[in-house]
Amino acid sequence: MSEYFRKQLSCKVIGVDINREAKPDITGDLNEPTTWQEIRRRAPYDLVFASAILEHLPRPEETLQLIKLVLKPKGELIVTLPNIGHWRARLKIILGRFEYEDYGIFDRTHLRWFTYFTAQKLITGAGLTIKKILIDPAGGMKYCSWLVKYWPNLYAHQICIYATFH
């Protein structure tokens, strides 16, 4: 994603990742104050893109507040989160098949789970104003957009929220 921002949109990108192999600009754990010191040193930012991050953190609410501190006054935030309310996840739970996986909704490194509705509550509870919500329907549901429109919590595999702090 950072390559897209750099090459297609001509943005200056500062990548932060715990995995050194991802070759981020800042290698660090978002639970550690030293990582945030380095992030703040390079601030302020126009946009923070937090893709598949908040569900891996024990206190995502605090992380959103730290993000607020490094954004410019009219800064923007894009967050993506997997939806535990997706019908496939529900079916696995109903059938007693809640098994951790290497990636996806049941990723073994997830500490928190969100639905379409609790994701919005997380964002607004942190003092953000949601400007737009997009969802990624998995499993061929792209062709049944009316289902996704009326039951996003059931058919959204991934939730993407665009927001600003008020």
TrEMBL record:
Highest taxon of source: Bacteria
Entry-linked InterPro entries: SAM-dependent_MTases_sf
Pfam families on file: Methyltransf_23
Record-given protein name: Class I SAM-dependent methyltransferase
